[in-house]
Amino acid sequence: MTGFAVTTISRALNNAPELAQETRDRVQKIAAEIGYLPDRAALRLKTGRTNVIALVLEPDEQIYGFGSSIVTGLTEAVRDTAYHIVITPLFRNVQPIEPIRHIVRNRMADGVIFSKAESFDERIRFLIDNDFPFASHGRTKWPEAHPWVDFDNETYAYLATKRLAQKGCKSVSIVLPESALTYTDHLKAGVARAAREAGIAHEFATDVTLHSQTDAIRNYVSKRSRRPDGPDGWVCASEVSALAVIGALNESGKTVGKDVHVVSKQSSEMFAQFQPGAETVHEDFVDAGRHLGALLLRRIAGEAPEELHYLAKPGVDWKD
């Protein structure tokens, strides 16, 4: 239909820059008109590539908006490429390594993205050892460089604790993620450093984590707040935990913003409707998705992993 050779058609469909723009436009226009799509099985046999990026998500990540935000950013990153996104679920009671093994061993994708990186994450060890392209949301302590995108949680916790001290708080607490996750140590370090500099007390919540049911977090905070030595400042590492903390404080007869103060990360507009008295620091998961996609595409293209990382810095605009 175009009069071009198959190789020219292929390069035009992949938007190869060495071809004239007029040629690319003509081929892509006709392909769109006839509804042409490449045969994925043939593509994989011919090139060894699938043109698929697998995003591994847990059900709760989608429910709380993390998943949809990451997908939005990731979609923007691959928009003008040949790549498509396939979501691979991590089912409950399944080890996180299992979907990764399935993707790699069956060559289901050219690269994979996942979250909740642990300090010595076996998924990352497996992917490095198999030389399979990936990007993680979160860092690790493995000595080898690998692509990652993360939020500077240590700086966030530091700034949040300093803000609480500025508000007059004498004792600050935080409900932490599970201990294996790398950013747990970052949060602890930030709170401890700021508390030490401000000369105030700090503690890390016991018996509950961010992975606990919201009712469990709420009960813990309610009981802790009723004790004479209860914290008068709370740093929250997620919106869901912040809602539980604020609800518990209200039940305990505390007025947030007066008797007790709360600083939380915020990633959605919805949270702003339910957080009276709390101050927030924005964490942009859409932007994280963009960077994860861009870094993974560079890794798939053969770029060395040493420079393939991005650390988002928290910005604050406290209003006194």
UniProtKB/TrEMBL annotation:
Could you tell me which CDD domains the record lists for this protein?
HTH_LacI, PBP1_RafR-like
Task: List the InterPro entries.
Answer: HTH_LacI, LacI/GalR-like_sensor, Lambda_DNA-bd_dom_sf, Peripla_BP_I
Q: Which residues form a coiled coil?
A: none
Q: Name one Pfam family in it.
A: Peripla_BP_3
On whether DNA damage is a keyword of this UniProt record, the answer is: no
The alphabetized UniProt keywords are:
DNA-binding, Transcription, Transcription regulation
Domain HTH lacI-type as annotated: residue spans = 1-47
Protein name according to UniProt: Substrate-binding domain-containing protein
